[in-house]
């Protein structure tokens, strides 16, 4: 049913559960996992010229750390999964959709809130755009509260 799963990550705490769910689904279906992080070009371009390179470098570092979280989750799960990783730059929703189409994904897994989660009440703006525009099914995974008994940590 699922051969290729794309997990969109931004390294935020709210994405951790989405990563766990994506890894779990991949293990159950012996699927490939593709982890993608997108450096938001709009965020980079809107910064003053004198700090733009520093911001891009910091976002690249954050992307590498976010991707490492996915590979670490697979390792912690004792999963012998095929994991491909990619860091892209552009508009996050469009890049996630393009990447998913490019790898012929069966599903895209992502958290409902990202780094800017406090700005959106129910679903993050990137997740909302991906759900609305991506031709591939999107599995949105909400972050559980600290009190929720289903909450686990990576």
Describe the structure.
- The chain is α/β, with parallel strands linked by helices.
- 45% of the residues lie in helices and 20% in strands.
- The chain is built from five helices and five strands; from the N terminus they run βαβααβαβαβ.
- It has helices at residues 13-29, 41-45, 49-76, 92-102, 125-133, and strands spanning 4-8, 32-40, 83-90, 107-111, 138-141.
- It has a five-stranded parallel β-sheet, with helices on both faces.
- α4 (92-102) packs across α5.
- The longest helix is centred in the middle third of the chain and has 28 residues, at 49-76.
- The protein is globular, with a radius of gyration of 15 Å.
- 36% of the residues are buried.
- Residues 115-122 have low confidence and may be disordered.
Can I get a quick summary?
This protein is α/β, with parallel strands linked by helices and 154 residues long.
Primary descriptors:
154 residues, alpha/beta, 5-stranded parallel beta sheet, 45% helix, globular
* Order of SSEs: EHEHHEHEHE
| Percent of residues in beta strands | 15-25%
Structural classification: alpha/beta
Helix proportion range? 40-55%
Give me the count of strands.
5
Global outline: globular
Mean pLDDT: 86
Strand order of the largest sheet: 3-2-1-4-5
Ends apart, CA distance between termini: 26 Å
| Biggest sheet architecture | 5 strands, parallel
Cα-atom Rg, whole angstroms?
15 Å
Number of helix segments? 5
Give the low-confidence spans. 115-122
């Amino acid at each position: 049913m699922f051969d290729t799963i794309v997990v969109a990550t931004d390294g935020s705490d709210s994405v951790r559960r989405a990563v766990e769910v994506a890894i779990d689904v991949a293990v159950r279906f012996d699927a490939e996992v593709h982890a993608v992080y997108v450096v938001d070009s709009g965020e980079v371009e809107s910064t003053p010229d004198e700090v733009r390179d520093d911001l891009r470098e910091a976002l690249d570092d954050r992307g590498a750390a976010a991707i490492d979280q996915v590979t670490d989750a697979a390792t912690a799960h004792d999963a012998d999964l095929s994991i491909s990783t990619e860091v892209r730059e552009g508009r996050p929703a469009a890049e996630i959709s393009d990447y998913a189409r490019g790898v012929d994904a069966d599903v895209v897994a992502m958290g409902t809130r990202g780094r800017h989660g406090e700005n959106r009440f129910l679903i993050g703006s990137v997740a909302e755009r991906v759900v609305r525009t991506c031709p591939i099914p999107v599995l949105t995974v909400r972050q559980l509260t600290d009190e929720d008994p289903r909450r686990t940590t990576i």
